[in-house]
């Protein structure tokens, strides 16, 4: 019998379906019936029949119509998400226009081409804001357009404005391939292109820019295939598809229509200015719409934001594993790290102390092995500051490059209204973000590589002193055996994906573009690597929480108990073998939503504001000579 897994309010529910000709609406109601079962207040739902909800597929994030037949839109064992009207939904559930929650006022981000950050761009992609231009940006756009109008009127020869693109204006060619970018990523791409045009060096008209902003704010998004850019002359292919939809050609997506022919999307019936772009814009504005590194950079912005989120949560997860494996915090002593003062290394060591200091956060688990004879821990625990630290520093380095690129003019030619001239250059070349994103993938992958080894230590009874594969009745139950195999497989895939794409270059455009960055693939594979890292760390977090079960009634530190409680709010302890994929997905969702970080952060901040880290009870195996106590240790700031 076909079965579907439905996510409702942090719970995963299996819904069997005898008749796949039933509708998505039926599936949603069946899931709601299971959700309210055994809840004293029915989960706040008075009537399943009258409850309004939205359903989407987890894979691809496509919205499903309540009247769709299950057999037409889902496959056996598919995962879907259901959001009840009025709920505060996960940001990742928002492929629709800003203001989905009608109880909140619409917020705007003002774009000027100079101050947008990767965090802002990521939030724009999630649908948290609409956008508008600053008055200064509008003035610059008008000035640069006036210069180009003069050039066109005087019939001067300027690349891409009076030459080269006339034929393109009369011919529509699908130049990219592959699946379309998700609505969230297309929103980021469109927002970033608007930000670059707002700098006033592209020559686009203010009317065209306003039309693009209207499309963004209404979430009417072009069909942009994910493959097809070599990252030189900008991301010509995907940006051409972005412009194509704005012309009323090809496909578009909107919250009300889903994917449909652009000319039928309601937005175009209400905004004649957009439809007119097909006839007029490309004659002198075509290159301004499609020339730049925005595909690489928008995907890179998502990559660096997710990388930053997983890196700091990796410290929390590793700290919980160290507790379960009864490790020591001596290796996180600040004096050790002051002798090798890399910022990331010091930050990670402090974070471990913030979570594990038993003087500040009493830990019964730590006390239980205080007088053990172990001298030091394995590298996967002892060297976390060094391994996690370089990932942290790399992310900061890459974020700086991406933020610079976000606010850079990457067109060709450049329009300098104040000088009254246009100049051809090479700012469109994607080597900067390409190299940075290759570096990001390599660094962040190491978080999964070391995590997989910690999972091995948790599952191996010879190393953990816990039941084999963290389950009782081993043999009858396999526990975390296959979960560890999954983590190992993901790490292995990452090793291939971490090969730098930017070391390759193929000459294109009849050797005019004779060196390219391959930045599009660098960005896409960086995101794949980061997703795998998130999934591996989700498995480690599950395993560490399962390990805690075998140490009860002993308790760990307060912040780590809060992390344990968070996991147990979505996943039950592992008693016997069960379908594990929903558990991994549920914890993966916690990581994506940064809930692991959010629950521990207040404790980390409070500790670091009151204590200089590292005051765990001294182990008798730590040899030291009598000497005056360091004035930097266990100092409390009143």
Task: Describe the protein.
By secondary structure, the chain is an alpha+beta fold. The chain folds into three domains: 3-84, Phosphatidylinositol 3-kinase Catalytic Subunit, Chain A, domain 1 (Ubiquitin-like (UB roll), Roll), CATH 3.10.20.90; 108-291, Orthogonal Bundle (Fumarase C, Chain B, domain 1), CATH 1.10.275; 298-505 and 515-610, Up-down Bundle (Fumarase C, Chain A, domain 2). The protein is 49% helix and 9% strand. It is built from 24 helices and 14 strands. A five-stranded mixed β-sheet has the order 2-1-5-3-4, sandwiched between helices. It has a three-stranded antiparallel β-sheet with strand order 9-11-12. A hairpin with a 5-residue loop joins strand 3 (53-57) and strand 4 (63-64). Helix 8 packs antiparallel against helix 11, helix 12 packs parallel to helix 21 (519-549) and helix 18 packs parallel to helix 21. It is globular, with a radius of gyration of 27 Å. The relative contact order is 0.10. Residues 91-103, 165-174, 271-276, 613-625 and 627-638 have low confidence and may be disordered.
């Amino acid at each position: 019998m076909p079965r579907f897994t439905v996510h409702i309010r942090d719970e995963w529910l299996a819904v069997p379906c005898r008749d796949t000709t039933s509708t998505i609406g039926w599936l949603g109601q069946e899931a709601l019936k299971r959700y309210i079962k055994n809840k004293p207040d029915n989960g706040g739902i008075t009537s399943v029949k009258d409850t309004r909800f939205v359903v989407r597929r987890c894979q691809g994030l496509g919205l499903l119509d309540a009247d769709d037949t299950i057999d037409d839109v889902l496959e056996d064992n598919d995962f879907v998400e259901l959001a009840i009207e009025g709920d505060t939904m996960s940001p990742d559930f928002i492929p629709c226009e800003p203001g989905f929650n009608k109880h909140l006022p619409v917020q705007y981000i003002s774009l000027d081409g100079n101050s947008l950050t990767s965090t802002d761009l990521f939030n724009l992609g999630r649908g948290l804001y609409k956008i508008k231009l600053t008055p200064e940006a509008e003035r610059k756009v008008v000035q640069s357009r006036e210069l180009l109008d003069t050039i066109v009127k005087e019939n001067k020869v300027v690349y891409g404005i009076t030459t080269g693109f006339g034929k393109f204006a009369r011919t529509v060619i699908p130049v990219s391939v592959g699946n379309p970018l998700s609505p969230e990523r297309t929103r980021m791409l469109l927002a970033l292109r608007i930000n670059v045009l707002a700098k006033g060096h592209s020559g686009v008209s203010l009317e065209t820019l306003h039309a693009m902003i209207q499309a963004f704010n209404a979430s009417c998004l072009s069909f942009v295939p994910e493959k097809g850019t070599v990252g030189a002359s900008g991301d010509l292919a995907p940006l051409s598809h972005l412009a194509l939809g704005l012309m009323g050609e090809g496909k578009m997506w909107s919250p009300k229509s889903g994917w449909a022919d652009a000319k039928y999307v309601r937005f175009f019936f209400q905004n004649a200015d957009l439809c007119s772009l097909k006839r007029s814009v490309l004659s002198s504005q075509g290159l301004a719409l499609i020339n730049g590194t925005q595909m690489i950079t928008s995907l890179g912005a998502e990559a660096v934001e997710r990388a930053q989120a997983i890196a700091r949560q990796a410290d929390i997860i590793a700290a919980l594993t160290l507790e379960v494996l009864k490790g020591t915090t001596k290796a996180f002593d600040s004096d050790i790290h002051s002798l090798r003062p890399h910022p990331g290394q010091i930050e990670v060591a402090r974070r471990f102390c913030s979570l594990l200091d038993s003087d500040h956060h009493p830990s019964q688990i730590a006390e239980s092995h205080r007088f053990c004879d172990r001298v030091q821990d394995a590298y996967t625990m002892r060297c976390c500051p060094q391994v996690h630290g370089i990932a942290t520093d790399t992310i900061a380095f890459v974020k700086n490059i991406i933020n610079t690129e976000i606010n850079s003019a990457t067109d060709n030619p450049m329009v300098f209204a104040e000088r009254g001239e246009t100049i051809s250059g090479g700012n469109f070349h994607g080597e900067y973000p390409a190299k940075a994103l290759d570096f990001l993938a390599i660094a962040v992958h190491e978080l999964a590589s070391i995590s997989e080894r910690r999972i091995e230590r948790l599952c191996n009874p010879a190393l953990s002193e816990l039941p084999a594969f963290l389950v009782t009745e081993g043999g009858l139950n396999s526990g975390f055996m296959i979960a560890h195999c999954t983590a190992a497989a993901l790490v292995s895939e990452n090793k291939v994906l971490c090969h730098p794409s930017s070391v390759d270059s193929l000459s294109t455009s009849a050797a005019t573009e004779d060196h390219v960055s391959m930045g599009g693939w660098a960005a896409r594979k960086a995101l794949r690597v980061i997703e795998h890292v998130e999934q591996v760390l989700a498995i480690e977090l599950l395993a560490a929480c399962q390990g805690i079960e075998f140490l009860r009634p002993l308790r760990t530190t307060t912040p780590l108990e809060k992390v344990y409680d968070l996991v147990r709010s979505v996943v039950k302890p592992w008693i016997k073998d069960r379908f594990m994929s929903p558990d991994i997905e549920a914890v993966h969702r916690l990581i994506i939503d940064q809930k692991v970080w959010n629950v521990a952060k207040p404790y980390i901040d409070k500790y670091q504001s009151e204590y200089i880290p590292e005051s765990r009870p001294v182990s008798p195996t730590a040899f030291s000579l009598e000497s005056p106590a360091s004035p930097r240790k266990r100092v409390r700031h009143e």
